[in-house]
Amino acid sequence: MKAQARLLVLIQFILFAILALALYLLPTGQVLWARLLGIALLALGIVLVMVSILTHQLINQRLVNVSPEPNASNQLVRTGIYAYIRHPIYAGVILAALGAALAHGHLVAVILAVIIGAFFTYKSTFEENLLAQAYPQYADYRKQAGRFLPRLFR
Q: Comparing C-alpha atoms, which of 101, 116, 115, 111 is closest to residue 31?
């Protein structure tokens, strides 16, 4: 499990680097609505990541772990944004990646953002199995909060 967790972190940073390189090297698109939507999603994603990190830090008095392995000394955070979304940092990263890709306007960047979204879906599934083992209350929490979006009906 530890090796797989480290591999997921490595893949995550490789995907970020590939997207950054694509945004830097590829020509930009000229579609105004995509740019405006992209900028809005990018900003929303950054705010979501920041709020999530701050909420986690307020509860646990330490920074978030990049690894999907739960820190045994941390509490399960279920307040603030975490009351509605189980993986708000991942959701913010996905939104920011999609927003940056749309604002850039090249199809390859958008495809890379979709791949990042699929990757974080897999990583969150892996992480949730570990969280369920570490926190007995996690099963109830999964019923209350959505993975990346708030549940509309509880």
A: 101
How far is Cα 63 from Cα 66, in angstroms, rounded to an integer? 9
Q: Does the residue 98 lie in any domain?
A: yes
Domain holding 53, by residue range, is: 31-63+75-154
DSSP string, the chain: -HHHHHHHHHHHHHHHHHHHHHHHHSPPP--HHHHHHHHHHHHHHHHHHHHHHHHHHHHHSSPPPSSSSPPTTSPPP-SGGGGTBS-HHHHHHHHHHHHHHHHH--HHHHHHHHHHHHHHHHHHHHHHHHHHHH-TTHHHHHHHSBSSS--S--
pLDDT digits (tens, 9 = 90+) for 87-135: 999 999 999 999 999 999 999 999 999 999 999 999 999 999 999 999 9
Q: What is the CA radius of gyration of the chain?
A: 16
In the chain, the number of structural domains is: 1
Kindly report the pTM of this predicted structure. Answer: 0.95
> Residue 81: inside a domain, yes or no?
yes
CA 94 – CA 88 distance, rounded (Å): 10
